[in-house]
């Protein structure tokens, strides 16, 4: 019980906490001195991350004419057949077809609660093929690399020495970073939810968190807590006191969250048995108790893997898309049951698109791709952005069917952040490269 201050700091360092790395903002967060902004309404952003690089250009395909001819010549054995006509508000040459594996989502498109965002990818500034070849404009670092592109999508900018994710920064800009329950992951730690003064609260797919040190019968739980409280009550150093406060708060929050989840209403919506369905079921359950938590703004992170389809794409990719569509439909049904359909927006991110060319059994790492946005507030029934021509050696092809994005991912993030409550004047502080683009280009939400 007589831990010295040096011993305590050593323990913190072994746990990954560096006193030198803690900023004054972090210390304020640890001590709970940051005050949250008040909101009268409730909103949630749910990020569905598709790990591996989704071949999302194949989600939307041209149906006829020259665009279809180019598409089939480029895609070869991977060209989608039997695509269902998608009656988009915008007109595109050749018409637009929806991959049949996504049929479960079509009613939401027709009801104008689902939108696609086409031709999106990581960019620093608008880039032409000539500029790309001449390297006359700054380009994203390590294009076509899983880890680096995942980081860029989650950080909302090129990777820096100290990194924060745009989901966490968005909460912090709105002064919600220290509100318990505002930042929740069902898929463990991730860069998108890591901030200066906030980190994600992790829930399991069952929606219940476990504290390993407190497992066991009730007397053990109380004994461990008493020992910890006695130890931390002696902390005199500001860092030690802040750490003690944070740790005790984490335990209290976990027990409080579990109590609320155990009392959560039972939804009639049935979720499937897939991992993504289980994660989204946990999100829906957590959203059902948001009024008890008192969090007016929440961000959630879930994920689905398997999209690195170098092999067996003809069978693997349709199964992945079908699972994605079914899970998203289930989740939308659940939030509608909670009467929160207009206040919850679900959107996708992925490492990158994939090559137009087939390697014989699949596709390789690409660049531009398409994304999904679902929710009652979404300006749905449309393909926002661009239906890029899937044409080899075309004006956007940097080689092998890797297409230069028509829109930056920061242009995609901007309307999501704006809907969440961020002022236009703050967007470039959240997304530094947005100043190089039209921040109003994508009207993803109803006015």
How helical, in percent, are the residues? 25-40%
Q: Note the main sheet.
A: 9 strands, mixed
- Fraction in beta strands: 5-15%
Secondary-structure class: alpha/beta
Tally of alpha and pi helices:
14
Low-confidence stretches: 1-35
CATH class: Alpha Beta
Task: Describe this entry's structure for a reader.
There is one protein chain. With 447 residues, the chain is an alpha/beta fold. The chain has a single domain (44-207, 271-436), classed as Alkaline Phosphatase, subunit A. 35% of the residues lie in helices and 13% in strands. It has 14 helices and 12 strands. The strands form 2 sheets. Strands 1, 5, 6, 7, 8, 9, 10, 11 and 12 form a 9-stranded mixed beta sheet that branches. It is globular and about 75 Å long. Residues 1-35 have low confidence and may be disordered.
Secondary-structure topology with pairs:
Blueprint: H1 5-14, H2 24-31, E1 43-50, E2 60-62, H3 65-75, E3 84-85, E4 96-98, H4 106-110, E5 114-121, H5 129-134, H6 146-155, H7 166-173, E6 183-185, E7 201-202, H8 218-233, H9 238-262, H10 275-287, H11 290-293, E8 297-304, H12 313-337, E9 344-350, E10 369-374, E11 382-385, E12 407-408, H13 409-420, H14 427-430
Parallel strand pairs: 1-8, 1-9, 5-11, 5-12, 6-7, 6-8
Antiparallel strand pairs: 2-4, 3-4, 5-10, 9-10
InterPro entries: DUF1501, TAT_signal
Protein name: Tat pathway signal protein
Pfam families: DUF1501
Summarize the structure.
The protein is α/β, with parallel strands linked by helices and 447 residues long.
């Amino acid at each position: 019980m007589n831990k010295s201050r040096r011993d305590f700091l050593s323990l913190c360092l072994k746990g990954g906490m560096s006193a030198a790395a803690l900023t004054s903002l972090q210390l304020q967060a640890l001590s709970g001195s940051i005050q949250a902004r008040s909101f009268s309404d409730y909103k949630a952003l749910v990020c569905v991350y598709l790990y591996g690089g989704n071949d999302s250009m194949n989600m939307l395909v041209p149906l006829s004419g020259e665009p279809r001819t180019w598409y089939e010549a480029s895609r070869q054995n991977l060209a989608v057949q039997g695509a269902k006509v998608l009656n988009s508000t915008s007109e595109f040459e050749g018409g637009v077809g929806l991959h049949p594996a996504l049929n479960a989502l079509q009613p939401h498109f027709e009801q104008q609660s689902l939108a696609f965002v086409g031709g999106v990818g990581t960019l620093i500034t608008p880039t032409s093929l000539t500029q790309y070849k001449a390297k006359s404009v700054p380009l994203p670092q390590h294009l076509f690399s899983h880890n680096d592109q995942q980081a860029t999508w989650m950080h909302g900018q090129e990777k820096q020495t100290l990194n924060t994710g745009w989901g966490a920064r968005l909460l912090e800009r709105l002064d919600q970073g220290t509100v318990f329950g505002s930042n929740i992951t069902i898929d463990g730690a991730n860069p998108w939810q890591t901030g200066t003064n906030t980190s994600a609260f992790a829930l399991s797919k069952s929606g219940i968190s476990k504290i390993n040190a407190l497992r066991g019968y009730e007397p053990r739980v109380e004994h461990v807590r008493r020992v910890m409280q006695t130890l931390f009550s002696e902390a005199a150093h500001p860092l030690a006191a802040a750490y003690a406060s944070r740790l005790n708060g984490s335990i209290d929050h976990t027990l409080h969250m579990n109590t609320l989840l155990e009392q959560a209403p039972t939804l009639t919506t049935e979720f499937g048995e897939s991992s993504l369905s289980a994660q989204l079921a946990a999100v829906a359950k957590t959203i059902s108790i948001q009024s008890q938590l008192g969090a007016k703004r929440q961000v959630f992170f879930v994920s689905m893997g398997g999209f690195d389809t170098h092999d067996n794409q003809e069978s693997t990719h349709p199964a992945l898309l079908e699972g994605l569509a079914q899970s998203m439909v289930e989740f939308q049904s659940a939030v509608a049951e909670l009467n929160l359909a207009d206040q919850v927006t679900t959107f996708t991110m992925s490492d990158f698109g994939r090559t137009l060319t087939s390697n014989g059994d699949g596709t390789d790492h690409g660049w531009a791709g398409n994304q999904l946005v679902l929710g009652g507030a979404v300006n749905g029934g449309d393909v926002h952005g661009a239906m890029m021509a899937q044409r080899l050696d075309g004006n956007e092809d940097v080689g092998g069917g890797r297409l230069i994005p028509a829109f930056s991912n920061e242009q995609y993030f901007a309307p999501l952040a704006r809907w969440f409550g961020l002022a236009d004047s703050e967007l470039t502080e959240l997304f530094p490269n947005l100043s190089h683009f039209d921040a109003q280009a994508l009207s993803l939400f109803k006015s």
